[in-house]
Amino acid sequence: MSDTTVDTLAALRSAIDHHRAGRLREAEALCRQVLRGDPNHPTALNLLGIIARQAGRPDAAAELLRRALAKVPEFADAYYNLGNALRDCGDRRGAVAAYDSALALKPEMAGWHNNRGVTLLDDGDAAAAELAFRRALSLKPDYAEAHSNLGNALSKQERLGDAIAAYRRAAGINPRFAGALANLGGALIKAGDTAAALEPLDGALKLDRQHVRATAYKAIALRELGRDAEADYLENVDLLVGSDRPPAPPGYASIAAFNETLIADIRVHPTLKEDWDPYQRAARHGSVAVDLLAHKTPSIAAFEAMIRGAIDAFARRLPDDPRHPFLCRKPRAYSLIVWANILKEEGHQASHIHNLGWLSGVYYPMIPPAIRDGDPEHLGWIEFGMPGYDLPCRYAPKLRRFKPENGLMFMFPSYFWHRTIPFRGAAERISVAFDLHARA
Question: 170: burial class by Cβ within 10 Å (0-12, 13-18, 19+)?
Answer without folding.
Answer: buried
